[in-house]
Amino acid sequence: MTAPADWQGFAEMSGGASGALTGLLFVAVSLNASGIAHHQGLRRSAVQTLVLFIAPLVMATALLTPDQVDWALGAELIAIGLIASWVLLSIRRAQQSLTDDDKQLVAIFNRRGPNVMVMLLFVASGIVLACGQPDGLYLLLPASVVAQLSGVLNAWHFLLPPGSK
Q1: What residues contact residue 162 under an 8 Å CB cut-off, 6+ apart?
Q2: Which of 32, 62, 72, 86 is in the most buried spot, having the most CB atoms within 10 Å?
Q3: What is the pTM of this model?
Q4: Contact present, 48 and 109 (Cβ < 8 Å)
Q5: CB 89 within 8 A of CB 96
Q6: Using CA atoms, how far apart are residues 93 and 99, in angstroms rounded to an integer?
Q7: Closest Cα to residue 154, out of 51, 77, 56?
Q8: Residue 105 DSSP label
């Protein structure tokens, strides 16, 4: 069993940062609500950003659950990665039906690499942990950092949309 104290600080920091960044996203979207409301692509990009912030928050919650065996935590991490992947893929498929103008508008938010890397790292961490290797938890660090940085870039673009002066 992985000692919760070993990962408690990381989980608290990552969960706290994700919670604060989720608030930032709501502020950014609220400041430009009228422009975002009229564009399906921007609304979907806001959901994508929300997923990038919520995944580390849910991961932190799972990590802070007391007296949990490694395989159960591993299964939770796999589920977090798969559910977030499903949501992100659904958003990506839905964006294929956008008009060319909307596609161009949201192109800045469509960074497939970070999204895929984050979700693969969550799943890989869960698999390694479920197989009895607590070192799988170290994969959560790059997953959380990339998710939060990618989400911050998206939130920044919601605050200052491309082409604004």
Answers
A1: 105, 108
A2: 62
A3: 0.82
A4: yes
A5: no
A6: 13
A7: 51
A8: H
